[in-house]
Amino acid sequence: MNDHPLxxxxxxxxxxxxxxxxxxxxxxxxxxxxxxQYNWVGFYFAKEGxxxxxxxxxxxxxxxxxxxxxxxxxAAFNRGKTIVVDDVNTDPRFxxxxxxxxxxIVIPIRVDGEMIGELDIDSDQKAxxxxxxxxxxxxxxxxxGETLSRFKF
Length: 153
Description:
- This protein has helices spanning 5-16, 20-34, 71-79, 131-148; strands spanning 38-47, 50-57, 65-67, 83-85, 103-111, 114-123.
- By secondary structure, it is an alpha+beta fold.
- Strand 2 (50-57) and strand 3 (65-67) form a beta hairpin.
- Helix 1 packs antiparallel against helix 2 (20-34) and helix 1 packs parallel to helix 4.
């Protein structure tokens, strides 16, 4: 899996990253480009007890700040584990960003072992995130965390 084209691309982005948000935006674009069924790809970062939106690709979201006890993003952050929701219409935690979203995956991002944020991906397809997607996106989140360790927040 380490030779996956997406991981290779993100490693290349990491090696030349000069600015944090530039790297994050290019990473979101790379994920969206290689997986067009992922219609919203973005980052949230913990600050002052809430999750604040970072760079993303997709439609504008009304959820620019999320309480840590709200939504799938809040649940993933509190659990410190990836959450995959195959059908957001059946999960009462879901905070609707788009009426077309059908499934979501949220992956924690850690820097030096500390959880600092997460990678959030939505799809207009139900059950868009299988085990291979989860494993790959967890590796992406690891790479992002390693890269972010070079930048100050």
